[in-house]
Amino acid sequence: MTNLFEHCSGQTLSANLGWLNEPTDWSIEDGKVTITVSPISDFFIDPGGEPVKASAPFLHTIVKGDFSIVTRVQVDMKEQYDSGCLMVRVDDTNWAKVCFEYFEEQPSILSVVTRGNSDDCVSAPVDVNKPYLRVARAGNSFAFHYSQDGEKWKLVRYFGLDCAEEIKVGIVAQSPIGQGTTVTFTDVQLQHGVTGSVRRVK
């Protein structure tokens, strides 16, 4: 595994990284990414026909083929839905994210898979303030996991996305209905290729 941000400092990114919706306030120090997100920022395509939301900061790289990515995330939880996420993005209407989110006054793990419209899946409350998130890909199959200690992992969901060999992969900070928040990502580790089923963490 390699730290995705090990060659970055301050607001200087390595050539393989880029922003969608770059925020004003962000920094990288010793591989740790801190993002202060603006109010009302989110990625969601409501199946009920509400306006599309695509304003959250997404710091990404392009990954070819199978991979896994892991991070540890901390969120200053002020308002409902404030969260930090790992995201895979094919295009504007095909993407997915797994999030550490403030939901009903409790830190929780949630996920969204978007194929034209978004779903919204609440998985579990968590008892720690810095859990680990993981995404793995094998072909068009993907798996989301989370861990409270970085050792014991639980499957959030297993799903499919029609996608090219190359997709965008990275981190998202969001405050969908709030006045903004600060999200910190540490130990963002990317590994090319997967061994065995993406449903299980080796």
* Helix content percent band: under 10%
| Average of the residue pLDDT scores | 97
Structural class, from helix and strand content? mainly beta
* SSE sequence, one letter per element: EEEEEEEEEEEEEEEEEE
According to CATH, the fold-level topology is: Jelly Rolls
What count of structural domains?
1
Q: What is the total tally of β strands?
A: 18
Strand content: over 45%
User: Biggest sheet: strands, sense, closure?
Assistant: 8 strands, antiparallel
Second CATH tier, the architecture: Sandwich
* CATH class identity: Mainly Beta
Computed CA radius of gyration, to the nearest angstrom: 15 Å
What is the global morphology?
A: globular
* Intertermini distance: 13 Å
* Uncertain stretches: none
